[in-house]
Design brief:
Blueprint: H1 9-34, E1 40-42, E2 51-53, H2 54-70, E3 75-78, E4 82-84, E5 90-98, H3 100-105, E6 111-118, E7 121-129, E8 134-138, E9 144-148, E10 156-159, E11 173-176, H4 183-186, H5 190-195, E12 196-199, H6 203-210, E13 216-222, H7 224-227, H8 231-236, E14 240-243, E15 253-258, H9 261-271
Parallel strand pairs: 3-5, 11-12, 11-13
Antiparallel strand pairs: 1-2, 3-4, 5-6, 6-7, 7-8, 8-9, 9-10, 13-15, 14-15
Helix pairs in contact: 1-2
Length: 275
């Protein structure tokens, strides 16, 4: 049984509608409260740079308050404030700002990511892009949409579908190692490096994949809040998701997203020396 099938159509619609409204609320919250100057803090405990801003924490508090009000018994896991345990099988996973570096420099590609999990499995996902006035959301395990928020009139809604006819000889690949894959390891996958024509703009690259604009996304060191909200959207759009060593993508780490089985299988083989 597919985990997402554990929700009835009525339940799916209920949670999807909640997230749809939350996307609009978050966009409004950003423009009213957070679209201003801010201080950047480096939360990395090593030599690296892992930025966080007041906006990250403000967004997470806002999202948590909305979820807690509507679903007081549900568990919540967030990047900034950790885990609030309950006895519920349903858990919300939050990345308040995916792409904080983009947020810091004014690049509009950052997003708010939220997943609803059942027993650790992502079943409903939202990727909201406040600066782009649009969001991506799956309304079932077979239907996901991009919704452009209209300032006046009705929002524009378009069904997502990956490019399942992608040919390995001319695939469009977006990738990023974020400093996690050493040059020595990269030298073991020259064919993969040659295929990587496009940078990976965090969740936006996955969103473009679901629209059929990119055929493959590969990325290192995803936390659960980075990838759980995207998995249901990817699968509902017809995509395939796994780790580089072909485990379930829900475990995070180095993730490979492909538009069809043939492409996915070939890339897993090419990535084997570093998986």
């Amino acid at each position: 049984m597919i985990v997402m099938d554990l929700l009835s159509k009525k339940e799916f619609k209920y949670y999807a509608n909640f997230l749809s409204q939350l996307a609009k609320d978050m966009t409004r919250f950003y423009y009213l409260k957070l679209n201003k100057s801010f201080k950047v803090i480096n939360k990395s405990k090593s030599m690296g740079f892992d930025p966080v801003t007041k906006a990250d924490r403000a967004f997470e508090k806002f999202i948590r308050s909305k979820i807690k009000k509507k679903f007081p018994t549900h568990e919540i896991i967030g990047e900034e404030f950790g885990r609030k345990k309950t006895k519920s099988d349903l858990t919300w996973v939050i990345d308040p700002i995916d792409g904080t570096r983009s947020f810091v420099i004014g690049n509009p590609t950052w997003s708010n990511l939220i997943a609803l999990n059942y027993k650790g499995n992502p079943i409903v996902g939202l990727a909201n892009f406040p600066r782009l006035n649009k969001y991506y959301l799956n309304y079932s395990n077979k239907a996901a949409y991009v919704v452009n928020i209209a300032c006046v009139g009705k929002d524009k809604k378009k069904k997502l579908l990956v490019n399942q006819k992608a040919n390995f000889k001319n695939i469009k690949v977006a990738g990023a190692f974020h400093g996690w894959l050493s040059l020595k390891k990269q030298s073991k996958i020259p064919k993969v490096l040659k295929l990587m024509q496009f940078p990976c703009f965090d969740a936006l690259s996955y969103a473009h994949f679901c629209e059929g604009k990119i055929d493959v996304v590969l990325q290192c060191q995803n936390k659960i809040w980075d990838i759980h909200p995207l998995i249901p959207i990817i699968k509902a759009s017809g995509g395939i998701a796994s780790t580089w060593d072909n485990r379930d993508a829900k475990y995070g780490g180095s993730v490979l997203i492909s538009s069809n089985k043939i492409v996915h299988k070939k890339l897993l083989k090419l990535l084997k020396p570093v998986s």
